[in-house]
Amino acid sequence: MTGPTRRGRPRSGDTSDRRTAILDAARSQFAARGFAGTSMRSIATQAGVDVSLISHYFGGKDALLVATMQLPVDPVEKISDVITGGTDGLAERLLRTFLDAWDPHREVFSTLIRTTLGSGDPHAPLLQVARNILIVNVASILEGDDRDLRATLVASELIGMAAVRYVMKLEPLASAGPDDIVRLYAPGIQRLIDGSVPLT
Prior knowledge:
Elements: H1 15-33, H2 40-47, H3 51-58, H4 61-69, H5 75-84, H6 90-102, H7 106-119, H8 125-140, H9 147-168, H10 178-194
């Protein structure tokens, strides 16, 4: 049975246990209900803490999702920085940012991608990050009625490239330098961003 909710900031000795309780509750609810179906209040109730404590520790729900994954980099912060620059040159910034983040941690991300693709779970953490952080943020600065589809295609280009580079390790992509990948791959992604893909 969940104990009474304790208000305010915790004593220093409580911090680790309460952060762990929040992460455990968030992890189980994101897995069962998905990002959209999970509320900060329901996580707080399960963890036995005040909802304001989650914001104090983690910020928003998207940052909490990322925290449950224990990634070596923070995609929320990186994507936010990339999106701030607007759509001009967005493809190049996205590619460089992802390659800079992924290349030093190839094994971590290859395991995450492999597990996600093999699970068949619509609530897999990587899919939730792609859907609720990457796609939502990219779509927010695009124009046109098909912006959600184009943002999803941008995400698929990035994840597909990562799967071939880090999981399949298909040469020469696996060992190609970031500059070459950006030079050859960014223009196609930028056309999706601009909505300038020819119909024929």
